[in-house]
Protein 1
Amino acid sequence: MPLLGAFAPESGGFEALVLMLAAALVSAKLLGELCERWQQPAVLGEMIAGVLLGPSVAGLVDPTHPGLHAMAEIGVMILLFHIGLETQLRKLAKVGSAATVVALVGVAVPLGLGFGVAELLGLARLPALVIGAALTATSVGITARVLADLGRLQDPESQVVLGAAVLDDVVGLIILAVVTAIVAGGSVTALDVGRITLVAFGFIVVALLVGRLVVPPVFGRLARLAKDSSLAMIALMTAFALAILAQRAGSALIIGAFTAGLVFASTPHAERIGEGVSRVGQIGRAHV
């Protein structure tokens, strides 16, 4: 079987998935280390590897493959959980006003410019609105990886950028939900927008409040009984559960995983959990 055919999804589900994973992991690791030698973030090399292997160049990896897509989702959840573990909520709160301004500008400018330019190019108002909404999307995963690779995650400026990226994702989801309802032909009232906003931000607030009450005593008992590796896996499964709850509530998987990391960051076991999650994340991070 030719090499390109072996990687095709229709050539055999599990075999194709294993070959694509092997290609992705090896290429991402090699190019990531190469970028680090050039004093650049490893994630830059990993992104280049994805471009080279993807349909744009070599076509060796199919990003639409269900198994590969699932691995990518798991990888970004592990990454955001780990970033949350390294983020102090107090530091994030101190830069809350600056992060909010950056996030709102980061949403309003691409939305307005995208909508305006699309209308100038002759598109109807509804398609122009969809284009503007699509341009509000950001990638908190890439932002977090770059800051972590540079070792600047705890800098005040990095906290502003990270907080803005998280808020940007939440606000972007709200805008996309509203635009989706408009495109579907429904009417969107101020009450609908308020409800969507309340659900999106309310989930984070409730998860943080409940988590800070429940997690410390529960994991205090588990820490006396379980090994470090077991404690990390239990925490990671909790993060996955919170990620699913976030998605069900109308937010995003990564927002739930990051919130779980913030909850565990306030416990005395954060370092032990972080070390265990780092070992698991060595595979997952290549799929971000």
Protein 2
Amino acid sequence: SGGISDNIEHGIFALIDAVSNNRKDLAFDLLHQLILSGEPETRILSSIIGQMEVMLVTKQLAEDGNPIGEIKKVTKIHEFRIKKCLNFAKKFTEKDLKRILINAYSTDGKIKMGVLAPQLALEMLIAEI
């Protein structure tokens, strides 16, 4: 995979890590770095949504007693990413993850409809996590 997708994936991991450790200040810095590096806000948001969806699914599968190997089979996701997502997901309840996802989908809609400026919308989303 190319450098750009690695950069954004790494950036999103770092951002979610910061948020899950209650370091909003760091999360905002990381968001601004991603934007400054030229990542489109819509791409940042879709990466956050993708990560959160994986966190929710892997958390549900793990809590149902599925081992990593089974989760990997079901989701077709790389084991490294599953482990990372499960680690982040520990810090959130299933209810939290669902709430964050609903906010993220609504943020996506607001950006697409032009209701909110993309950067502001992302900042608000992070503030609400």
Protein 3
Amino acid sequence: MSKIISGNSQTTIGSWALAVGGALASYGVDAHGLASEFNIDLNQTEDPKYRIKADDMGRFYEAALLKSEDDAFALTVARHTSPATFHALGFAALASNNLANSIKMVQQYSGVLSENASVSLECKLDQYWLTLQVPKERPLGSHLAIEAVMATMFYFIKYFQHVKNIQLVQVNFKSGVTKNEKKYQEFYDCPVVFSSQCNGFVFPLTVIDKKLPMANEAVASASIHVVEEYLSALKTSDFLKEVQKQIRAQLLMDISQETVAKALCMSVRTLQRRLIDLGFTYTEVVEQVKYSVAKPLLLDPKNSLDYVAQAIGFTEQSSFTRAFRRWSNMTPGQFRKRVRA
């Protein structure tokens, strides 16, 4: 099949996995092998369009942390990042007028980095509080990765934005005290509080409003234009995800356009138009979903071909075989043999 439709969950930028992989390799661990266990291809992570499911990324980070056997693994991850890690948003932040604008930019366009996390910046008692959050229902790894995200932000500010004399008031972590607490104290050069109510930094006003040495309004503006185009494409992908989700939910019942359009609170004509604008017909999306569901079912030898056919809505195995050949240029049986070979 020539057209690709992405998965149906929240995602994070692929280059974040590249930084984690680089840190992991520094401990002598096979980063590529571990990443593949969580459906992550590190060879693709330099492509700005490559996105990773947030759940997969969270679990990959948790596994990487365990493999490193280093409670301060987050600090190593930070040292394996660069402005290019965050693509256009990284360069936009780099060219911001001051740190406050840089952080607000990340806050506004945080969807580029992850659809799973949020950033807030508040002024309290003559101090700026920068807080990072992930939903409570996210896997453990997502919460652990917050420490790496924070270390990366600090590293970015200090070394790439050249605010080397930065003096934080305090750094807060929701996680418990680590045996490498001294490393964190040395890295941030300020009081570090564990088991806190939030994850974040406390900045003095003198730092947050200071003009950055690489400030360049033209570069920042051009980079933001690229960021906005990227987010627009991501939102387009979100609509496809919703259509896919509804089709999956109705796969064994009614996957008519009428049913899916009603679930999405739109008319059939609107559904058709939006899909056509994206280069798809409704039938193509349905077949993509059926194909994506059929493949993992075929990998289990306990599942008969008749069972797989019925599981994706075919009443006859012969119809399923013809459809699968059309999708993949091979029969279901040939697919099984080739994957197992």
Protein 4
Amino acid sequence: MEKIRVLLKNKKIAYVAKTAAIVITASILGLILNHFGVAKENVLMVFMVGVLLVSTCTWGYEYGIFGAISSVLIFNYFFTVPVHTFAIMNPNDVALMAFFLIAAFISSSLTVRFQKQLIISKKNEETATRLYEMSEQFINATGKEKIIELGIRHIYEHTGYECIVELLDETVVSGAGKEYTSRDYMMFPIIGMVKQIGILKVLNHNQGLSVEQELIVKTAANQIGIALDREMIYAEQERIKVEVEREHMKSSMLRSISHDFRTPLTGIMGDCGLILESEDMDSPERAQLVQDIMEQSMWLMKMMENILSMTKIESGQQFVNKSPEVVDDVINEASLHVIGLRDRRNFQVSLPKEVIVADMDARMIAQVIINLLDNAMKHTKEGGSISLSVSYRDHKAYFVIEDDGDGVPEELRERIFDEFVFGTGDKSTDQKRGIGLGLTICKEVVHAHGGDIWEENRNAGGARFIFWIPAKQVE
């Protein structure tokens, strides 16, 4: 407050000095003109210009009035008869000075009003610019907390007051964590497109708000409401979109399940019928039919395992139960569950000499390996080569599954690990089409173990799938 008073006092002194300087300058100029024979009526115009300059260069009526009265007294003293006295002998001089004062007062009043209007226009322009900048920033704002923080920051920058935004479902507070009563703040509604969604409390401590401040606060409240409403609508649209996609995926999965279950079940039923109907069937034929039934049953079991695993993953449940496991044991167990891997393919396994132990869910990691090996089976010809190698470095166990098939098509590489993505151009003679969940499950299981998985095409032809999980060597 003391600094403000000093500034105001200094400004008043400056205005008085300007007024005195202009009046003195006008007097000197009038004396010079009078010396060269210019009529006193024209000299009075010089003082009129001086009064206008005083009104223009200062702020307030009092300086213009002071300049006008001073000019009349100086004019009376130096330019009216008798000279160098304040007496007036000529009635024309009285009328001239009276009209001068009236004209000076009017012109000073109009100048001051013009100044006020100019200042108001500048303030309105600044306010409009601030409101435009605020609106522009709210257009690009996303996220509930960021929108509220933006509104609170604008109000604080342009009013100096902190705020509290209270929504219907939560409260966001800016400033110190204090308790406030209704005497400490003013409330403004936050209204969306169709309803009120919250309250904005301006902590002005019962000091009131100027017109400009109130306009900024109301605009900020409206912008918060519109932006939050837009965010809610967008979130609802995204939720509906996800639900539609989920329903579409469920429908696709059900269609795939119904189609892919029918094929092995038909084969199983046909083989069982042949066994029951053919009493004179020899042992090798009967054994082959039983083998076919076993293979079809195992394939159905693997597909069901993938469906159950995907259900657990999408439900958000904790689907991995980790415990220390030896990598070699998991590899051996997984390779036994891939039908025809050793009989119909050239399958090779390469394991490190050291014992590698990983904290993992052995069943889920085995399912990852089974899915990758089964995928390699589907994309290689009869007698093709498939390899599985494990290496250890930097406290990680790396699993590499390679085949000599046609590799991953370029159009599928970006989404090979997405749900319901099927490969094209499969060359396997004994393949069965899956439901497009195997690689998705691989990715989710590996990530749940804190690892990573990716694919790449081999230079010699075929695909290579690599994944790693945290592990350690046992000395």
